[in-house]
## 1
Amino acid sequence: MDLTEANELIINSLKKNYIITIFCSCSVEYTGRAKSYIARGDRLIIIKHDGTVLVHKPDGRSPVNWMPSKTFISPIIEDEMLTIKCSNSGEAMNAKIFEVYNITAAPLLDIEQLRINGTESDMSNMIYANPTLISEDFVPSSREEQTKYGFLDVFGHNGKGELVIVECKRYTASLDAVTQLRRYVERVKKTRGVKKVIGVIAAPNISNNAAKMLNDWGFTYKSINPPDRFPEKEKSQRKIKEFY
């Protein structure tokens, strides 16, 4: 594609607030968080309608360089090259384009927010609603109760009247999880004036070192996976085959 034609297309697309993708041969120079330069190579430049700019190499998921939202973007033809000048609060990035292979520009609308499925909050909700996951006599009284050292995921008592703290981890529980639980247990002992508090780690897995520490401190581990399904109403969404 002719560079002058490409420049005009980018300028017009920026005015329309379009998403722009540029497949090109370019070099990139950046100053701001640090200084960097990458010589000429085939890259993908993405310009989003909020001013975010990403420069990707042909492989890998992370951009080789980027600019945040609200970046001022100014494409210009100079020295027989198309330069996309980007600036934002003390940062500057210049992408010098030697050859344009293809440009795509289009409006995109997306008002949905990402919903993370199976968080630690989801786990605590599940345990609160199904206390037998911890033990047959576990009675939860609160979840995410605040203490000086953080929030107790699930707090309650057992059939003997002993206080129980459940610390949820959505991935493999590590030494940090065990020390965190111990801080909560010691804090509750002090504030409630009791000598014994049951500590439980609820997680899909636990590391060997964490399991040993847990046992040394008299705590227990429950193998519990976070919930992995969205609400049932999601099942009513039409399937792609229904459109044929």
Note: The two ends are 37 Å apart (CA to CA).
## 2
Amino acid sequence: MWDERYAEIEFAYGTQPNDFLAENASQIPTGPVVCLGDGQGRNGVFLATQGHTVLAVDQSAVGLARARALAASRGVSIQTEVADLADFDLGEGRWMGIVSIFCHLPSALRKRVHAAAVTALQPGGVFVLEAYSPEQIAKGTGGPQSPDMLATLAELQAELTGLVWQHGVMLERAVHEGRYHNGLSAVVQLIGRKAA
């Protein structure tokens, strides 16, 4: 499904970064950043333009090929890795930033990835997330239709124990990101820092 979506002529979620990430990117210390489920690379490429060394991880080789082309068009480069997050090793103390923008996973896998993310951050490193909350299903403006792939703020904070919260909200806001995220949306936003 993802290869088909990312092979469409138009970028599925646009070429501009997620606006929550763009507004808060300055909170991520300079250094290596991994973008989880980065698809066609709009967020990873943006972070590369901000001076970060970026690894974009996604299960779609088609999406990541588009990501590399987008980076080249912006005069930057990113590393890409085709991987299923069930098998991807985030490492230990490796990243100054871990970015998860609308990267929806089955709850059991999400909990494993989030626990690994806390371990994988360097001291002072920052985790940034925006995702749809369970209320999104009724809105029909994007995201998965499975409640198991959506989480509340409290659930996410529990999964990311070990971070100091800089920001954490559930809210409704307009999201306009290509044809697949478009309209009033119910989202959860998180920024957490690993203690230095």
Note: The chain is about 30% helix and 30% strand.
## 3
Amino acid sequence: MANQLAQPSPQVLARIGGITYLIIILAGSFGELIARDSMIVSGDAQATAGRIMATPLLWRIGIAGDLVMHICDVILIVTFYFLLRPVSRYLMLMAVLFNLVQTAVLVANKLNLLYPLFLLGTADYLKALDSRQLEAFSYLSIKMHDHGFGLGLIFFGCECLILGYLIFKSGYLPKWIGVLMGLAGACYIFNSFSLVLAPWLASRIFPLILLPPFIGETSLCLWLLIKGVNPVKWKEMTS
């Protein structure tokens, strides 16, 4: 009984992973597409500042949603560790480390989203700068968040490559999902390095470059949630 409680069945792990992944996708989409995209006016610091200060609660909710997403990141990678450890414990451990680096970078990066709320506030010390400067610094911090997010995705891309390989080799999850996850990892890495080395290229390939990752991650999420793993193949691998 104690052993069963300590080691949930693969189907239970799959359902936990699917639910957690779904929360990550929904929270991330809300923060990026609703909370921020509705406020950020590309190239216009004054308009962006005006929108943020008009609805600061929505901006804060977007940040909170991102933090929920990163909490779920930790839960998900632990779930993946137990699900894919039978294929290769060492590779799965490497994936865990890549994920931890990614999560740490992205959580620290949220400070860049808090800066506009401070800069556009009413504190007396802000009177040392005029409104134009504060708006410019605020917009710059948002741009820094975009680049910080891209840097974090380099490590997430490496994790996806490993997960894709382990899923492909597992036998108890579909090989085609492994291929999609590997492609997702390659796209994340290519997009992030383009952001650093060739910004002109990154602006041209975005957001189409993120379509394969969306398809791959959504497919894995739904498969874990609905189908789970093949229990017969799981037992063969674990034995």
Note: The chain has one domain: 9-234.
